[in-house]
Design brief:
heterodimer; A: alpha+beta; Multidrug efflux transporter AcrB transmembrane fold; Alpha-Beta Plaits; 4-stranded antiparallel β-sheet; two-stranded parallel sheet; 9 helices; B: alpha+beta; Gyrase A, domain 2; 3 domains; 6-stranded antiparallel β-sheet; elongated
């Protein structure tokens, strides 16, 4: 007996409620944008400069005591959070301390770090500083810039590739789905305020890759079915294609999620944010390749008959059935 | 139909075998690492200390290339330094003054008297009293310009000479600035490399980034500030005649002199002649040693020209003090007891053994041409790296097991085939990583785990196609064949798009992110290879042996 995530044959109508799905996606995008502008992102030092210190001590951590120890140094905004992870030993108490970039200093000063270390040793004598990272404001500004360029470049490159391999409508659909995924991911990072650092950009680009992977597989089938069933309405072709690829979509999503969840639970707290972004991306990417990419494609319509370039039947307007 | 040529089969299996053999050393990481280190020391001419036994821990005929572990896994320090290239412009421009002065003095009849004007550090301003001769004077100064020695600056000269009223303004040309920047950064890079090599840490990364930045990563070092101590000091050593002592930095120094603080005596300043007798550039060797009282010191030796200058000076100035100046601080100012002819000497001061060792290293490596500004610094403790490796390993195994079981449950025999391909796939990734000498980072491990999840995608695409073909009533051989044929375009398109993003990540990213891009990109290559060739070959071989009448996918 085989395990099947999806029945052998499905005839789900994915476009029965396009208004609902598009409306839902639109609402989520708007919400993400609103959160992004109202609450902002919890940028890590990669993007806003400053210093993070990871401490480890056998004594239980009292965040308040740490804070009192550091306060007299007048370092401006200091955040101290205790880190929990199932991998830690019982006597392993970990905190992350983040100190804002100091005014008027391009380079990082060793003095600041040394002062903090001395102050903390006063609270917990056995404290060790397992990692100390500082990024100057100059570099962090450039990192933001490079990150934004990287994401835009990836989306642009993909747009061109799909345009060349398919039709422009497919490319627009795919990119709509991509933008949707990226915006929603940034939105969720804004809502839950997980630290947003360089690794998250890597995750964003991976989401771009994954979401595309999904979209392209569906589109590949759409292209094939468009040739096979020349008379079938576009909506039916899309539905058929999605249903045919549904088993694969689910399989791949599940195996990928399986691997990612293992990493999320067991991979340690250092990359948890990164893995969270990818898990979210896989879920959103799977959703968007069906409900955003294909719906956009349906709304745009496609040129059906490749042999007769100027046929009136099958031009892009004839397929709109809204 | 279902035929694969023998040469193709041999090629596919040999590629797999090659990849797996290349990956094998990583399974015995500490042992192979010890072997590699021992072999390197043996080749360098060392012996004993159990080096031979360590070298014998891994057979020599086996590949011994390992995946490099990134800083976040091994622990160590990371610095991003900006070379302050403008420092050099200033020195260059300042050095022009005597030349310009001599040149114009010779023409005093036409240009009149000349005077150096206070100016911005990047320019030289000379005022002449005979305003009408300003153009002639400028032309004369222009004669000092040299052609720029660089590829892009060909055909241009190094100086730009303009006139403003009765002043001549000399600046470096843009082409010369570019050429100077290039030389400065190259030189800084070389000196940093030498200094770090002197300390002898394993596999440091010292790379140029962009126009004027240098990335330094040293695994295994305690902290970024330790690393800065090794490279950060400029170590400009000079020997200057002492004019006198002063009580404060504001003491009147007199023309051609400067006030320099003492290194270890608080509140003590020396007035020195600015022109040095000899500088550290003429040193050929410096070693940590001890003085006659057993205190740590640094002994040094000059090259012949330095030795002559030093010898002449000491012969002429017996009984007067001279100062040993390091980075604008007087280390000591001993009185010259006798003529020192051999060009070797000893620097004493209040050093600890460690300080004298460091100073010797710095002196040997030479001075940095310009100051460094640290833009980014990271220290990762080795325990954190070890924890990350451990966590990553467990996550990998669990992810692996999960996907294997899931694939078997879903596709039965075919799932088993996909699983064999998946195992080969992960082996190939490690093999490729070792072969290209890539660096594995924590996000890189995440990339491998992600690949484990996504690698089956190509197989899933094919299997689902085969299922469809079987459902459509095709025979087993035809179904398999069509399954592969029809799934190919989806596999290719889907993977190329992901590969594009991996390439962009690689190009734009740095450090750990780049490590992720590498594993992701290699993972795509190997997973497509295993899905299209390896699994297919396994399926074909299985089919040839079994000849099933019906297909159970």
């Amino acid at each position: 007996m085989r395990l099947r995530l999806v029945p052998q044959e499905t005839k789900i109508d994915f476009f029965g409620k396009t208004k609902l799905s598009l409306g839902f996606s639109g609402l989520m995008v708007v919400l993400s944008v609103v959160f992004f502008f109202v609450q902002g992102l919890n940028f890590g030092i990669d993007f806003r400069g400053g210093t993070t210190i990871r401490t480890e001590s056998a004594q239980t951590v009292e965040v308040g005591a740490y804070r009192t120890a550091i306060e007299p140094l007048n370092l401006g905004d200091v955040s101290i959070t205790e880190v929990f992870d199932p991998n830690f030993d019982d006597d392993q108490n970990v905190t992350m301390i983040r100190i804002q970039a100091q005014d008027g200093q391009e380079a990082v000063t060793a003095d600041v770090i040394r002062n903090v270390e001395v102050a903390l040793q006063g609270v917990a004598p056995d404290i060790t500083f397992v990692s100390v990272e500082s990024v100057g404001p100059k570099v962090s500004g450039e990192l933001i810039q490079t990150a934004v360029i990287a994401v835009l470049l990836a989306i642009g490159a993909v747009l061109v590739y799909i345009w060349l391999r398919f039709e422009w409508q497919f490319a627009v659909g795919a990119v709509a789905a991509l933008v949707h995924d990226v915006v929603l991911t940034i939105g969720v990072f804004s809502i839950v305020q997980i630290r947003f650092d360089l690794a998250i950009i890597a995750a964003l680009l991976t989401i771009v890759g994954y979401s595309l992977n999904d979209t392209v597989v569906v589109f590949d089938r759409v292209r094939e079915n468009l040739r096979k069933f020349k008379k079938l309405e576009l909506k039916e072709v899309l539905n058929l294609s999605i249903n045919e690829t549904l088993a694969r979509t689910m399989m791949t999503s599940v195996t990928t999620l399986l691997a990612l969840i293992a990493l999320f639970v067991l991979g340690g707290d250092v990359i948890r944010g990164f893995v969270f972004a990818m898990i979210w991306g896989v879920v959103v990417g799977t959703y968007s390749s069906v409900f955003v990419a294909s719906t956009v494609l349906l709304k745009l319509g496609v040129k059906r008959d490749w042999s007769k370039p100027d046929a009136t039947v099958g031009n892009q307007f004839s397929n709109i059935d809204a | 139909m279902l035929q694969i040529d023998l040469w193709k089969r041999v090629l596919i299996w040999s590629l797999c075998a090659l990849g797996l053999i290349m990956a094998l050393p990583n399974g015995f990481y500490p042992r192979v690492e010890a072997h590699n280190d021992a072999t390197a020391s043996l080749e360098a001419g060392f012996s004993g200390n159990g080096l031979e036994e360590q070298a014998a821990m891994w057979p020599n005929w086996m590949p011994s290339a390992l995946v490099n572990l990134g800083l976040d896994l091994r622990g160590g320090a990371h610095l991003l330094a900006e070379v302050q290239v403008e420092d050099v412009y200033e020195t260059r421009i300042k050095a022009l003054w005597p030349e310009v002065r001599n040149l114009l003095r010779a023409e005093r009849a036409t240009v009149g008297t000349i005077r150096l004007q206070p100016s911005d550090v990047s320019e030289l301003r000379v005022k002449i009293s005979n305003r009408d001769a300003i153009q002639e004077a400028a032309t004369l100064v222009r004669g000092l310009a040299q052609p720029v020695v660089s590829l892009t600056g060909a055909g241009t000269t190094d100086l730009v000479v303009t006139t403003e009223g009765d002043e001549i303004v000399v600046t470096l040309s843009d082409a010369e600035k570019l050429a100077t920047d290039e030389r400065t950064v190259q030189q800084a890079l070389e000196i940093i490399r030498r200094r770090i090599d002197e300390v002898g840490t394993r596999e440091p990364t010292i790379q140029r980034q962009g126009a004027d930045r240098i990335l330094i990563q040293v695994p295994g070092i305690g902290s970024a500030s330790e690393l800065k101590d090794i490279i950060g000091t400029t170590a400009q050593l000079t020997f200057n005649p002492v004019v006198g002592r002063a009580g404060s930095a504001d003491a009147a120094a007199g023309a051609g002199n400067e006030v320099v603080p003492s290194l270890d005596e608080e509140g003590v300043y020396y007035i020195l002649e600015s022109a040095h007798v000899v500088s550290g550039e003429e040193l050929v060797d410096a070693q940590p040693s001890f003085d006659q009282n057993g205190r740590p010191a640094v002994s040094f030796r000059f090259n012949p020209s330095g030795a002559r200058k030093f010898g002449d000076y000491t012969a002429e100035n017996i009984g007067s003090p001279f100062a040993i100046v390091l980075d604008s601080e007087v280390i000591s100012a001993p009185v010259i007891q006798s003529h020192i002819p051999g060009g070797s000497g000893i620097i004493t001061g209040n050093f600890s053994v460690e300080e004298s060792t460091n100073l010797a290293v710095l002196l040997r490596a030479g001075a940095l041409p310009a100051g460094l500004n640290f833009l980014e610094e990271r220290t990762i403790g080795p325990e954190l790296g070890q924890d990350s490796i451990e966590a990553g390993r467990i996550a990998c195994i669990v992810a692996f097991a999960g996907v294997l079981v899931f694939m078997f449950l879903s596709y039965g025999t075919f799932g088993l085939f996909a699983n064999i391909a998946l195992i080969i796939n992960v082996g190939l990734i490690f093999g490729l990583l070792s072969m290209v000498g890539a660096t594995l980072t924590l996000p890189g491990i995440a990339g491998i785990v992600l690949t484990i999840g996504m690698a089956v995608d190509a197989n899933v695409l094919v299997f689902e196609r085969i299922r469809e073909e079987v459902k459509a009533g095709r025979g087993p051989a035809r179904a398999i064949d069509l399954g592969y044929e029809k799934a190919l375009s989806a596999i290719v398109d889907a993977n190329i798009t992901t590969f594009i993003t991996a390439v962009i990540l690689f190009a734009m990213g740095s450090g750990p992110v780049r490590g992720f891009a590498i594993t992701l990109g290699l993972g795509i290559l190997t997973s497509v290879f295993t899905a299209i060739y390896v699994t297919r070959l396994i399926v074909v071989m299985w089919f040839e042996r079994r000849r099933p009448k019906t297909l159970e996918v």
